[in-house]
Design a protein that fits this description.
The chain is an alpha+beta fold. It contains 15 helices and 12 strands. Strand 2 and strand 3 form a beta hairpin. Helix 7 packs antiparallel against helix 8.
Length: about 400
């Protein structure tokens, strides 16, 4: 399969050229010493026996170069990355991976290299940042393995990509209603739709007048609006296929939406439901400003985020007696049960309710008290023995 040929450079130095076949093509690699060429030859021939030959030149690409290509060609469930996701990955890579590993050749990344980087990043930026970055690196190198640029993915840290973020506090329903009253009237329905229908901010910014069905009391989530640096406002499909959904609304929200539609959006079916003061599509930065003002006005915790309203809606829904995980997933637009289960909190009140339910079952299942058995003399009546 492989052979070594001695040649001389123009300056008269000896070079030992290893010639070998990989992926049906002939390749060459020069070495200054015959022993190094021989060692590579032995390794390639051993790998050929188990079908694991990887072109040594392919792994010479740096991680920086490969990640740039990966981001432009990455598919998730057959679809390219959204601009927002791609930018998020780029920022995460630059912030936590590039400085330490970006100039490393793919073939030089070893499990020890990744483990050392992960430990240093955990100490410097925290466990959550390390977990997010590790998942990204693992996905990139999994593709490199599939592309046969490396023989095996060096990301092998058990639990390295697992986040243990603190659970967000449950927002009291009374506070959600206070925030809806405190925010400027133009944005009141955004608080209600997030707090009681579980819509994401991007989904609300993408709503059109035609997406609200007052007759049937529902809202159709068909798209989302994002703001991308250099591109401005863009309209995208929902976050996942599960994000495309129809959500039934409480009566209070329906009444508020009817008043909102009479006052703020334009009359056309495609008119954005939520607009800025000048009448154009609402920008996320504008809503952030009015949100912070409403939080301050109600005395709510300063760190409260609009996404906490979605958390409130999902958690309330999960507490509905008899609701299934599938129903919860459909309402909040989650594709996986794992994501939906985040909202099924275990609380002392619920735990006591479970105990009470079990007690009711036990009480209903207890056998009736049995009377003492008394032996009665038997008498023969008409040929039949009886205790009467």
């Amino acid at each position: 399969m492989a052979s070594i040929e001695k040649r001389q450079t123009k300056s008269g130095e000896d070079r030992f050229i290893l010639r070998y076949r990989v992926n049906g093509k002939t390749a060459e690699k020069p070495f200054k010493r015959r022993s190094d060429a021989q060692a590579m030859k032995v390794r390639l021939e051993a790998e050929a026996l188990d079908g694991s030959v990887i072109d040594p030149r392919a792994g010479a690409r740096t991680l920086d170069v490969y990640v740039a290509s990966w981001l432009s060609t990455r598919l998730v469930k057959g679809r390219p990355l959204t601009p927002a996701t791609r930018i998020g990955y780029q920022r995460l890579y630059r912030r936590n991976i590039a400085a330490r590993l970006g100039d490393r050749q793919l073939r030089t990344l070893r499990p020890e290299t990744v483990r050392t980087w992960h430990a240093e990043l955990t100490a410097a930026a925290g466990a959550d940042q390390a977990a997010k970055s590790y998942r990204l690196l693992r996905a990139v190198l999994a593709t490199a393995e599939t592309d046969e640029l490396i023989r095996q993915n060096p990301c092998r840290i058990r639990g390295g990509g697992q986040e243990n973020a603190e659970e967000r506090p449950m927002v009291p329903t009374s506070l959600v209603l206070e925030l809806a009253e405190a925010v400027e009237p133009r944005y009141r329905c955004m608080v209600l739709l997030a707090g009681f229908a579980g819509l994401r901010t991007g989904e609300q910014l993408g709503l059109r007048r035609s997406d609200v069905d007052l007759l049937h009391g529902s809202v159709h989530v068909r798209r989302q609006a994002q703001e991308i640096a250099g591109s401005g406002r863009i309209i995208l499909d929902p976050k996942s296929e599960a994000g495309r959904r129809t959500v039934a609304l409480p009566a209070t929200v329906i009444v508020a939406l009817a008043a909102h539609m009479a006052a703020f959006p334009g009359p056309d079916a495609d008119a954005p439901m939520f607009t800025g003061p000048a009448g154009g599509p609402l920008r996320r930065a504008t809503f952030s400003r009015v949100w912070r003002a409403a939080v301050a006005a109600t005395g709510a915790p300063a760190e409260l985020r609009p996404h906490d309203l979605r958390h409130h809606a999902a958690t309330l829904t999960a507490r509905m007696p008899g609701i299934t995980t599938k129903e919860l997933m459909a309402r909040i637009g989650h594709a996986s049960p794992r994501a939906a289960l985040i909202y099924q909190h275990a609380t002392p009140d619920r735990d006591r309710a479970v105990a009470s339910f079990l007690e009711e079952i036990m009480a209903a299942s207890k056998p009736s008290p049995r009377a003492d058995v008394v032996d009665l003399p038997l008498q023969r009546v008409g040929g039949v023995w009886s205790d009467a």
